[in-house]
Design brief:
Length: 206
């Protein structure tokens, strides 16, 4: 399984295009803004989107859901605990400032331990709460899309509604840092890292 990254929006969200190298079918993960930029990357790489995934419901990760869904007519999936954020009115003012649009409702809900088929490959769903109640990560072959749970040298904020510091730390230590140290971490913002690097150097989870 391969991936491409488009950095989108004022908060520089990493939108990932995770695709099967045989069929070029792909998942669009966290299209936060700038749909046209995502469209161009999809076209350049010859990809065929089949599913739209959100790691969580914050506006900087869902802002281009509508444009992606409208163009490709693909199902949208998010964890049920974050599904209400997709159309929350209190996000609309911030969304306007970030160039986001209100999102359509989810077509499917992501469940811990489930799988997302992408061509002849798949992503495994991991419920990784703390940053938000419904935060999930997606595990591929040797890499983890961690959303805003774990960053290179940082962790997700927990001061937004539904956030929990204790839950976040437990998630990171018991679900992510127990993975093989060579596992690549692809975060929702910033550069990639690895499980081993974060275990050794991340000051928030020492």
């Amino acid at each position: 399984m391969n991936f491409e990254t488009a950095i989108v929006g004022a908060l520089e969200t990493n939108c990932y295009l995770v695709y099967c190298p045989e069929t070029y079918e792909c998942a669009v993960v966290d299209p936060g803004a700038e749909a046209e930029k995502i469209f161009r990357l999809i076209a350049e790489k010859g990809l065929h989107p089949t599913v739209l995934l959100n790691t969580h419901g914050h506006v900087d990760h869902i802002g281009a859901n509508k444009d992606i869904k409208d163009k490709f007519n693909i199902p949208l999936s998010i964890h049920s605990s974050d599904s209400s954020m997709l159309e929350s009115v209190h996000l609309l003012e911030l969304g306007f400032l970030l160039g986001a649009k209100p999102s359509p409702s989810a077509d499917n809900f992501l469940e811990d331990g489930g799988k997302i088929e992408i061509g002849k490959s798949f992503l495994k769903i991991m419920h990784t709460p703390g940053h938000s109640p419904g935060s999930v990560s997606f595990l591929g072959d040797g890499f983890l899309l961690s959303g805003d749970t774990l960053f290179n040298g940082g962790v997700g904020r927990t001061d937004l509604p539904g956030g929990s510091w204790d839950t976040l730390v437990s998630t990171i230590k018991n679900k992510i840092l127990t993975m093989p140290e060579e596992t690549t971490i692809l975060p929702g913002h910033g550069p990639p890292t690895s499980v081993g690097h974060e275990k050794e150097t991340n000051p928030f989870i020492a």
